[in-house]
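Problem 12. The chain below contains 311 residues. Write out its predicted structure in C-alpha cell notation.
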Amino acid sequence: MDVATRPLRIGTRGSPLALVQTRAFMALLPPALAGAEEHIIATTGDAVQDRRLAEIGGKGLFAKEIHEALHDRRIDCAVHSLKDLETELPDGIVLACTLAREDARDALILGPGCAAGDPADPYAALPPGAVIGTSSVRRQAQMLHARPDLQVTLLRGNVQTRLARVRGGDIAASLLALAGLRRLGLAAAASLVLDPGVMVPAAGQGIVGITARADDVALLAHLRRMTDAASFAAAAAERAMLGALDGSCRTPIGAHATLRDGQIALTGLIARPDGSFLLRRSMTGPIAEAAAIGLQLGRGLRDDSPPDIIG
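Solution.
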C-alpha cells in the first residue's frame, strides 16, 4: 500500500472480541499509519452458529472472506485471533505480525448448579453427569479424559452469549479462553483458571495475529517492527506442531509454548474427541529453533497416535 496517499484499511470480524482486538492493534500503529480505517467483514464462521466448524469447512471459515478481501485489495491487512487462523495460509498472504500474548490459559465457567471451584482439582466442582457446553473438540477431549461421566453439548456464539447460557442454567458449565475474557473486561466471569498441565491450550491462543499481502513490502516493514518477538517464536513453534499433525477441526490438538532464558518449552497434545485416547509430550530447545522443535514434536505425536486419530 502507499501509506502516503490513503489510510490503512484493516479488516476484522464484527464480534465484540474481534473489534476490541482490532482497536488495540490500531492504538499501536506508528505515526506513518495514523488514521487507519476499520472494515468489518462478515464471515461464514460467524454466520453459521448451529453446527461445529468441522461440519461446515473448518476454522478457516473465520478468515475466508477476510482473505478474499485482502486478495482483492479491498483491505490492506487483517486482525485475527491466531488460534482461529488456519495453519496454511492462502497463496500471497502471510502472517506479518503478532502482538504480545495475553494469558494463554483456558477458564472454566461454572453455572449455579456447580460446587465451589478448587484450583487443585477444578473438575471436582462439576456434578456427576454434568452437561458442558463447548464447540471445541480439544476442550471436550481433555475434559472427558479426566471425567468420562460428563456430557458435552454444542455451544457456539460470542463470549457474552456463552456466558449467558451458563448463568441461565442451560448448561452446567463451559470453557472460554481467559485471554478473550480479559480483553473484554470480563475476567471476573472465570470461576477457575486451568493450568496448562490440566488443559493444554489451543495453538496460538491468546495471540493476536495480523495478516497482509506478501507483496506489500512497505506495510510488511511497518508490521515487522510492531511484532512481539516472544509471541512470534511461540506462534512459530505451536503452528509448526499443528502443521506437522495436519489435524482437522475434528482432531483434538493442543499446543503451548513458554520462553525462558533463551529456551522455548513446547507441550503438545493429541486425543480422540471422546477422551478415550490422549497423548501429551513436551520438548525444549533454543528459541531460534522454535519452528523445528514444533515440527519434531508434532511428527512424534503423529507417529505414536492410532491411525484413526489424524483426519
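Discussion. The mean pLDDT is 92. Students who got a different answer should revisit the alignment rule from Section 12.3.
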